[in-house]
Protein backbone atom coordinates (compact mmCIF):
# COMPACT_ATOMS: atom_id res chain seq x y z
CA UNK A 1 0.00 0.00 0.00
CA UNK A 2 1.24 3.44 -0.83
CA UNK A 3 0.27 6.50 1.16
CA UNK A 4 0.65 10.04 -0.10
CA UNK A 5 1.29 12.95 2.25
CA UNK A 6 0.83 16.43 0.89
CA UNK A 7 3.45 18.79 2.29
CA UNK A 8 3.95 22.31 0.93
CA UNK A 9 7.16 22.44 -1.12
CA UNK A 10 8.78 25.19 0.97
CA UNK A 11 8.28 23.13 4.14
CA UNK A 12 9.36 19.89 2.51
CA UNK A 13 12.60 21.53 1.37
CA UNK A 14 13.38 22.53 4.97
CA UNK A 15 12.41 19.16 6.46
CA UNK A 16 14.73 16.97 4.43
CA UNK A 17 14.96 14.84 1.33
CA UNK A 18 12.06 12.75 0.06
CA UNK A 19 13.70 9.60 1.41
CA UNK A 20 14.31 11.15 4.84
CA UNK A 21 10.74 12.39 5.13
CA UNK A 22 9.33 9.07 3.99
CA UNK A 23 11.37 7.13 6.56
CA UNK A 24 10.59 9.52 9.43
CA UNK A 25 6.88 9.43 8.66
CA UNK A 26 6.93 5.64 8.55
CA UNK A 27 8.81 5.40 11.85
CA UNK A 28 6.45 7.81 13.62
CA UNK A 29 3.43 5.96 12.28
CA UNK A 30 4.89 2.58 13.31
CA UNK A 31 5.73 3.80 16.83
CA UNK A 32 2.22 5.16 17.37
CA UNK A 33 0.56 1.97 16.14
CA UNK A 34 2.87 -0.08 18.39
CA UNK A 35 2.09 2.18 21.35
CA UNK A 36 -1.64 1.70 20.84
CA UNK A 37 -1.18 -2.06 20.62
CA UNK A 38 -2.23 -2.38 16.99
CA UNK A 39 1.26 -3.66 16.08
CA UNK A 40 3.42 -6.11 18.02
CA UNK A 41 7.24 -6.16 17.89
CA UNK A 42 7.29 -8.63 15.00
CA UNK A 43 4.90 -6.39 13.04
CA UNK A 44 7.01 -3.35 13.86
CA UNK A 45 10.16 -5.12 12.68
CA UNK A 46 8.49 -6.16 9.43
CA UNK A 47 6.98 -2.74 8.73
CA UNK A 48 10.32 -0.99 9.26
CA UNK A 49 12.34 -3.63 7.42
CA UNK A 50 14.53 -4.42 10.41
CA UNK A 51 16.51 -7.68 10.17
CA UNK A 52 16.56 -8.85 13.79
CA UNK A 53 14.73 -8.55 17.08
CA UNK A 54 17.83 -6.82 18.46
CA UNK A 55 17.49 -4.11 15.81
CA UNK A 56 13.86 -3.67 16.82
CA UNK A 57 14.87 -3.25 20.47
CA UNK A 58 17.57 -0.76 19.44
CA UNK A 59 15.03 1.18 17.39
CA UNK A 60 12.66 1.37 20.36
CA UNK A 61 15.50 2.40 22.70
CA UNK A 62 16.73 5.04 20.24
CA UNK A 63 13.28 6.57 20.20
CA UNK A 64 13.11 6.57 24.02
CA UNK A 65 10.22 4.14 23.87
CA UNK A 66 9.40 2.46 27.17
CA UNK A 67 7.13 -0.53 27.58
CA UNK A 68 5.02 1.57 29.97
CA UNK A 69 3.96 3.68 26.96
CA UNK A 70 2.03 0.80 25.43
CA UNK A 71 -1.73 1.16 25.68
CA UNK A 72 -3.42 -1.67 27.58
CA UNK A 73 -5.34 -4.34 25.70
CA UNK A 74 -9.07 -4.97 26.22
CA UNK A 75 -8.41 -7.58 28.92
CA UNK A 76 -6.22 -5.20 30.92
CA UNK A 77 -8.82 -2.45 30.60
CA UNK A 78 -11.57 -4.81 31.78
CA UNK A 79 -9.50 -5.87 34.81
CA UNK A 80 -8.75 -2.24 35.64
CA UNK A 81 -12.42 -1.35 35.36
CA UNK A 82 -13.34 -4.24 37.66
CA UNK A 83 -10.75 -3.06 40.18
CA UNK A 84 -12.25 0.44 40.12
CA UNK A 85 -15.74 -0.97 40.62
CA UNK A 86 -14.51 -3.06 43.57
CA UNK A 87 -12.94 -0.01 45.20
CA UNK A 88 -16.10 2.04 44.75
CA UNK A 89 -18.21 -0.82 46.12
CA UNK A 90 -15.99 -1.00 49.21
CA UNK A 91 -16.49 2.69 49.82
CA UNK A 92 -20.25 2.12 49.79
CA UNK A 93 -19.90 -0.79 52.24
CA UNK A 94 -20.91 -3.46 49.75
CA UNK A 95 -19.70 -7.00 50.39
CA UNK A 96 -16.93 -8.34 48.19
CA UNK A 97 -16.93 -12.01 47.36
CA UNK A 98 -19.56 -12.60 50.05
CA UNK A 99 -17.29 -11.27 52.83
CA UNK A 100 -17.87 -8.17 54.89
CA UNK A 101 -15.34 -5.38 54.56
CA UNK A 102 -14.38 -5.77 58.22
CA UNK A 103 -13.50 -9.41 57.57
CA UNK A 104 -11.45 -8.54 54.51
CA UNK A 105 -9.53 -5.83 56.34
CA UNK A 106 -8.75 -8.13 59.22
CA UNK A 107 -7.84 -11.10 57.03
CA UNK A 108 -4.33 -12.32 57.63
CA UNK A 109 -3.88 -10.45 60.89
CA UNK A 110 -3.23 -12.36 64.10
Biggest sheet character: none
Shape: elongated
What is the domain tally? 2
Share of β-strand residues = under 5%
Poorly predicted regions are none
What's the N-to-C terminus distance? 65 Å
Q: How many β-strand stretches?
A: 0
Total DSSP helices:
6
The average pLDDT score comes to 79
Can you describe this structure in just a few lines?
With 110 residues, the protein is an all-alpha fold.
Structure description:
- The structure is a single chain.
- The chain starts with 8 loop residues before the first helix and ends with a helix.
- It has helices spanning 9-15, 18-35, 41-48, 53-62, 74-91, 101-106.
- 61% of the residues lie in helices and 0% in strands.
- It is built from 6 helices and no strands.
- The chain folds into 2 domains: 9-69, no CATH class; 74-106.
- The radius of gyration is 23 Å and the shape is elongated.
- It is mostly helical and 110 residues long.
- The model has no long low-confidence stretch (mean pLDDT 79).
- Helix 2 (18-35) packs antiparallel against helix 3 (41-48).
List the helices and strands and how they pair.
Elements: H1 9-15, H2 18-35, H3 41-48, H4 53-62, H5 74-91, H6 101-106
Amino acid sequence: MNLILRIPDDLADRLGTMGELERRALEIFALEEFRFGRLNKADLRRLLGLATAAETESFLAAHAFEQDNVMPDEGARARAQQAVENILARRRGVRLGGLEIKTLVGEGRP
